[in-house]
Fold:
Amino acid sequence: AQTVTQSQPEMSVQEAETVTLSCTYDTSESNYYLFWYKQPPSRQMILVIRQEAYKQQNATENRFSVNFQKAAKSFSLKISDSQLGDTAMYFCAFMNLNTDKLIFGTGTRLQVFP
Amino acid sequence: SQTIHQWPATLVQPVGSPLSLECTVEGTSNPNLYWYRQAAGRGLQLLFYSVGIGQISSEVPQNLSASRPQDRQFILSSKKLLLSDSGFYLCAWSDFPRNTEAFFGQGTRLTVV
Structure:
């Protein structure tokens, strides 16, 4: 069975600084995707970034980038130049492309301070 | 374009009453469908997912059930609600590899009193 672990329940960062959110996962599968989703106070789930397991290059989306360490089963999210609007709950997620099962970690609540 | 509708947005129900939450998707065919529950301040717990009509995978034994009567319709039900069923329920869909992400509804805040 697959699991996703986020060991940081809460994080805080000052505006314009950089913060890294941790995520580890456990699977014996080789065909999967990893995601980071953001849930602001509105509770709408918003995709931040995605990574295909077969791609070695780390994904980047503007200020958001990941450090994908496949052998270590680690998938951390780096937010550069943090903005007040980045304040939200961040969820790491794993999709098994053989079963289409999509599971999430317990989330990290990020607070960006001015 | 694809859209997902989830209703109602808010629901207050007494203990022991039935529940029916509905989710429909437009703009795609044969999507994978998911129901999640988010307890206050906690993560997303996968309750059920479906890869096709009549195919339901249950992840957590509990007081809830799910059905998929049509290709793009997913229903979460309970015959008798418990206090512990309170939470925020999210419906989602995916259709890999056409779209390489999952899309979420607006959610339903359920309070059992």
